[in-house]
């Protein structure tokens, strides 16, 4: 049996960094993710005037409940958590702030979030395209109140506003008209409570009380989206693989990817503090139709193993994957076609037909998930290469070493 240690969750690390910065007192994060996204987040916090000490598995952050207090420029790199959460932290402070991001992140929308901030009285201006980075905020605190939000394109808009709630004078009442990636909001609410905030949800209405956050010692759980590549690898090769640290109490919805693998014929055990997947003999997977609106970061993982199923794999309700690091529906379709697989896409779906992939050069699209997903295909298809394998640095800089060791272990075991 194989055990793979997965690095910390990007989503949990980003939220913990925000909460630590906003809290009264000194927070310690245990086993945070060290990757381009989280380094971008800490670099942004430092630019905003926060003090962080980063030993490898232990970061400490001095909170500043009054928020950033001097003018600053922040470069958010490719990270949407950085690009969507930090402007909100700045808005709660005082000063003139400018935020910019990479070309990839500049293309990704944040209009519903910046509109909501304006509705709350924040003086915010997009420098170039409306609803996109770069942007300027002349911050003078946020009074709070009631807003309506469409989070149908990204749950991160709602997460950012929820995080802001306790930092407002009067609290926030957010009525959500649509919500994609809903489990990420559950992570947000659970973590806000761990840092002392009061949040309630009644159907589509979230209420957040004022009163700030309290520092905590916070252990970061392993990243469930990253774990999906290893679970898929076991499913595809008929092996048994365990990921410690992700069990029944895990915060991340992406762990539900193992339920998809179970429907495809894998044996899945979700224990109190670990999850094990055992692929069917010979990796003979079943086809299926699955709605991935809640867990769409794992859509490319499924797309990459789908050709090996005995019937079509149809993934529905994933329109939002078109506004990620790349247009993931088109990118997956292009790469599957390069592998010789028959595939169809619609505005919000992809259908992959069974086939035998032929090894070839694939396009990375600067998207870590494209590279990690099709590396799994490579377990059964020799000769797959990528034009930009290093883009895994966004969430898992050591991916190729760790995945390579797994390949070797399995090759030796026969
Ligand atoms: O809040 C978060 O940490 C995230 C939310 C999801 O984004 P969307 O809500 O934009 O789908 C997910 O895809 C992203 O990787 C991380
Ligand atoms: C979409 C992703 O990242 P983000 O939105 O946080 O940039 C991802 O990690 O797949």
From TrEMBL:
InterPro entries documented for this protein: Enolpyruvate_Tfrase_dom, Enolpyruvate_Tfrase_sf, EPSP_synthase, EPSP_synthase_CS, RNA3'P_cycl/enolpyr_Trfase_a/b
UniProtKB keywords:
Amino-acid biosynthesis, Aromatic amino acid biosynthesis, Cytoplasm, Transferase
Kindly list the positions annotated as binding phosphoenolpyruvate. 10, 108, 156, 328, 369, 394
Q: PROSITE patterns from the xrefs?
A: EPSP_SYNTHASE_2
The entry's 3-phosphoshikimate-binding residues are 10-11, 15, 154-156, 181, 297, 320, 324
Catalytic residues, per the record, are 297 (proton acceptor)
Q: Which GO terms describe its molecular function?
A: 3-phosphoshikimate 1-carboxyvinyltransferase activity
The chain's coiled-coil residues are none
In short, the EC number is 2.5.1.19
The protein's location, in the record's own words, is:
Cytoplasm
Q: Which domain of life is it from?
A: Bacteria
**Assembly notes:** Monomer.
* Reported function: Catalyzes the transfer of the enolpyruvyl moiety of phosphoenolpyruvate (PEP) to the 5-hydroxyl of shikimate-3-phosphate (S3P) to produce enolpyruvyl shikimate-3-phosphate and inorganic phosphate.
Family of the protein in this entry: Belongs to the EPSP synthase family.
Instruction: Specify the protein name.
Output: 3-phosphoshikimate 1-carboxyvinyltransferase
Q: Which gene encodes it?
A: aroA
